[in-house]
Structure formats: structure tokens, C-alpha cells
Amino acid sequence: MNSLQHAREAASAARARYRQGFVAPTAGQAPGLTQCNMITLPREWAYDFLLFAQRNPQACPVLDVTEPGSHTTLLAEQADLRTDLPLYRVWRDGQLAEELSDVSHIWAQHTDLVSFLIGCSFTFETDLMHAGIDVRHISEGCNVPMYRSNRVCRPAGRLQGNMVVSMRPIAADRVAEAARITGRYPGVHGAPVHVGEPGLLGINDLANPDFGDAVTIRPGEIPVFWACGVTPQAVVMASRVPFAISHAPGHMFITDIPDSYYHV
Amino acid sequence: MNSLQHAREAASAARARYRQGFVAPTAGQAPGLTQCNMITLPREWAYDFLLFAQRNPQACPVLDVTEPGSHTTLLAEQADLRTDLPLYRVWRDGQLAEELSDVSHIWAQHTDLVSFLIGCSFTFETDLMHAGIDVRHISEGCNVPMYRSNRVCRPAGRLQGNMVVSMRPIAADRVAEAARITGRYPGVHGAPVHVGEPGLLGINDLANPDFGDAVTIRPGEIPVFWACGVTPQAVVMASRVPFAISHAPGHMFITDIPDSYYHV
């Protein structure tokens, strides 16, 4: 069995655990395989969202879109999107209504849900680590810190909102290399959108992220910001979308697609 | 005035000539600025097309989508999409109905047309030439040869069809470099989809392209195939779309966006 087959067995086993109710962040699971953000909307909102994603590709790089009513994806053909993520969020009128580990019964109340699977920066973190660049939230064993920024996304139809960014502290002499490495992955957020000066992004306190966990910033390190796949959740809130399901931040959909597939 | 400003003046002047009725292929016009394929559809077909593009990103890399009824784009804010391309095709029930240099009067019969502007391989040809790789249709002063392939696109809604490919003969010892250079431009078709063995793509006679012009293939050269932005026209035909407008092959929309913007 080759290493890709091994990784796919690990992915399948992880999805089976989540399907049985196990809840945990997915960082480090099935290494080498791409993980995705998910946002699920009624068909009536699908064009607006797909257009929003096209207009904001760094925040919303779409890797697959399901058929209306379907809960399967080419990204992992045996997976069930209603059960195989560890934790979901249900949104009503732009507000977080509940967090659940299985949304089958919610899904059953709708006939035409369309799911968008969106690239996740976990994909390029493996390459950063291989290059000897410390990925702080991994070395500290927590979730990546994410912040609502003041950067306004280009609106589409009824959807508008600001970009959510993730932050990784990078040593000043490695920032360019981190930009180069991640820039080769445009399908999973790509290059940083901002380097240093968090205040210019409207972020006043790096120690208080809006999502995820704060991480240590050491002397000589620069906070580097990437567009984040939690942006669609901020957009659902800002646009008061009547109904949506998403993954819970950090609790991603594990696919069968190797990270290398998204390397340019 | 810097070189980008010069290029934008050239683009503006070229669009003005086309607006006044001048008809000619756009290759070599306003060098350094991105040119686009265009496909314009009624709003009722827009989701199917945007989804088709998401599912077939090598053939249909979408650079902008207009608002319904609008004939302007962020890619060139002063341009008018009804007049500023040198030549258009009007499609009815999947058949080519007419070729026109101005479609304002056709556009006026519809209230909700949505235009999709799609990356064009002209963008990476400049880099190929800078690397000393001969781009044959440019050195021979003709249009790039394009072929309908047997490669089935992933369908979306009512849209289906096969990929159209462009072909450039490349010396065997430069094929890898051509793949590397073009691969850095995923927004404008990216890396080749096929190298050598045209028969495996269902192409039996390279001397008889389905669109554009045949070019010389010299001894020691390999035919290299890229996904082509004429694919949407093949899809309009195969799917018998009731109404569409497109550019005529080789007669592109010249934008104000530098090619380098799409370099990863």
C-alpha cells in the first residue's frame, strides 16, 4: 500500500469516527490530504454565493459544489457531508442557532441544499513546516487565531461582509519564503493578504482572536495574515442569510485529495 | 508615464478602434495586458455556467462576472462589452446565428444578460517568448490552432460538452519548461492538459484545426495542448443553449489588468 492509500485509509477512519459522534478539531488528521471549509445554503442562495466566491477567491477558493439536495462530493466519494465533519454550526437569520455533530435531521427539513467546499490553509502548513518554518498554533497544539478584518469583500447579490483572516507569526527573515511557499497554493487561500501592522487591518489586539486561539508571538516575529475560509460564516452573519449550515471553525471536512493537487 | 500607463493607453485606443467598427484579431495588441474570452448568457443560465466554470477551471477560468443587464466590468472600467470587442458571435438554439462587430441592438432585446470574462492563454505566451520558446502561431502571424477534443467536461445543470484545446508545438527539450512557465498562470488555463499523442485526445489531423489556423510542426517538436477558452462556445452548441453572445475566436476583450496579476 502506498502512502496516498495509507493517508486515504486514515481519512476514511477519521470520517467514520466523526460520523459516530466523536468531536475534535481536525488539524493533523490524515496528513497530506486536503481539508475543507463547508458552507451549505438553499439553492435559492447558491448563485449569489458562487458569485461571491468568484469575486473573493482568496477568502473563498471553491474546491467543489454539490448538486442541490446531494450530500456527496467528488472530493471524497464515500463521505456523507451531513455526518462526516466533527462539528457543524446551524445559522438562522444570520445568527448562530446551534452547534451539532450531526445535521442529518436539519438537512432533512430542506430539499435543495447546495454545499460549497472551500480550500483551507491547513494544506500549505505542511509545506511551511517542511521548510523549517514554525507554524505556531501547531507547535502550541491549539487552533489557528482568526480575526474579523476591516477589509470589505466585493459583494455579490445579497451577500456582503468583511474578510476573516488567519494569523501566523513568522520570523522576519522567513516572511518572504512563507509568502513564496503559500503563494503556490492559490486554491487554498494562496499568498498572505497582509504582512505586519495589524492595526491597518482593523485588528487592535492579537491576543484576542475572534475565532480560534491566541498564539505566542516571539521577539523578531512578524504577524502574517492570510484570507480565511471562515469568511463565509462572517458573510452569513453580516447578510442575515435566513438559513445556512457550516463547519465549526477548525472542525473541517477531510477529503481524499492530496495536498499536492493544489500546488501550482 | 510608466509602462503600465502606456499599455493601458494602447488598450483604450484599441478598444476605441473596435468600437468604431475595426475588425481584427487582438493578438499582439496592448502587450502586457490580459485579454479575455467572453460568453454572455441570460441570467437564467448564469448559475449553470458559473458552476460549469468552477467544475472545469482549466478550460473556464473566470476572471470577472458582470451584474445582470450590465455591460461593464472591473477589468476595464471604461469599456463597453457590447461594442469594444472587435468581433462577436450570436448563438441561437446552440447554432451560430451571425457574426457582428457591435451587438448593442441584440443586447437591447434582453434585460438580464450576464457576461463571463474568461482567461486567455495569450497571457502566458509573452512569458514563453521571453524564455526563448517560439510561439509558432505568433512567429507565423496567424491565429492559434484549436481543436475539439474527446475530453468530456464535468457537466453542470443543463450544460455539458467537450473541452476545446489549443496547440503549440514545443521543442522536446523545452516541453518541461513550457509546462512550468504556464503552470504558474492557473487563472489563464495554466499547465498543459496533454503532451504529445494527439490521437489520444481524439485529434486525428493537426493540419485541420476546428478553430484558428494550422501551424508548422518542425522535426523534434512535440504538440502540446492547453485547455482553451473557446470551450464555452462548444458547450453552448452541445447543450443547445437558446441564446448566447460570445467573442469570435481570436477576437478577444482587452482588459486593463497586467498579465503579471495572474502570475502565481
From TrEMBL, chains A, B:
Keywords: Lyase. It is an enzyme of class 4 (lyase). Coiled coil: none annotated. Its EC number is 4.2.1.-. It comes from the Bacteria. InterPro entries: D-Glu_cyclase (IPR009906), Putative_hydro-lyase (IPR038021), UPF0317 (IPR016938). The keyword Glycoprotein does not apply. One of its GO terms (molecular function) is lyase activity. NCBIfam families: PRK05463.1. Belongs to the D-glutamate cyclase family. This is Putative hydro-lyase ALO92_03686. It comes from Pseudomonas congelans.
